[in-house]
Amino acid sequence: MEMPFSKPQAPKRRDHVIAVDLGGRTTKAVNVQRRGDAFVLTSYAVLDAPVSDRTASADVLAEHLKSVCANLEGRCKAMSLAVCVNDSVVRQAELPTMSVEDMRMVLKTNSRIYLQQEYPNHVFDCHVIPSPALEAEGQKPKHSGLQKQKVLVAGARAQLLDELQEAVRGAGFVPDHVVPNLVGPINAFEYAQPQEFANEVVALIDIGFNGSTISLLQQGELVMTRVLATGSDQLTSELAESMGISYAEAEGIKVGMPAEVEGQLAGLIGPLGRELRASMDFYEHQHDRPVTRVYVSGGAARSELILQLLQQELMAECKPWNPTSFMEISVPAQQAAELEQVSPQLAVAVGTAMATL
Ligand SMILES: Nc1ncnc2c1ncn2[C@@H]1O[C@H](COP(=O)(O)OP(=O)(O)OP(=O)(O)O)[C@@H](O)[C@H]1O
Ligand SMILES: [Mg+2]
Questions:
Q1: Ligand lying closest to the C-alpha of residue 86
Q2: What is the pTM of this model?
């Protein structure tokens, strides 16, 4: 299994894939087919994750993947997975100019040198971040080993990758890519909003269950990523605590009638908003340019109120986005009716599918 980032450097191999985002709280899956130049979404599924801790065995995961697919229309052989930030490493690094194969080998034995941390028994993949200067001259970097190049590195424990592959096979599929979930929204955004991707400074925020991520893209180049420990779980837990009600009740109110608890939510979203603002400030000071667009994905982005409250904290317009906007939609009628509402939660699954196709 590979861990590619944006568009794969190898020739595209698949024209049909099921991509599954193994979120901490919710599993999201999309079934996507390439037809000529078009991409067709044939169905999607959103269901509860199998267990809340991350120790699900290959057998449990295989059963879960089977039930995910029972919720998807259309058969397909290949399956790709997105794994959460706690299960993967995503880092920018500088490596000597060499082939991706060589970089993968070098990182396996020298992770401390290039990633400032030992990652024993990990598998790595690398994406060379194009150098604007070289591109302007129409040059390709020489594999001389003398120059350095900026590289986005992803890694995961070899044992985890083995277990994931076993689970995919156990569910009756051929394992394809494994993608760190951090990379999903970036891949999908490139297809869904190509103009903004290519021309603007964009912050992509994904508010997940256990945590959130922010990635800053400057004219298509990933310049910064941060992983934050605050997500939707904490919002619900703190809402329950502040109101003296159960977690389930608080979750119901947050999702079903958030206007009733606007005051409380405004206070609770503050710390997350300030952490995200600090990441944007860091970029803005370093690069002396403003972040011009903020796009939010993840389950919480389905809430207009949460987006409004976040916008006040960030002092920047926060928009949800539809990662399926570039696709032909050929899903069952019931799913079509709900797609617009669900779509911000599908960003990682769509980005994982696009890494494969
Ligand atoms: N309409 C809504 N309003 C507010 N929150 C919502 C809404 N719909 C879903 N959520 C929240 O979204 C969360 C799940 O989001 P998501 O599916 O992005 O997380 P995940 O991918 O499972 O987690 P992680 O990315 O941390 O692994 C739930 O905790 C839920 O409270
Ligand atoms: Mg997620």
A1: 1
A2: 0.93
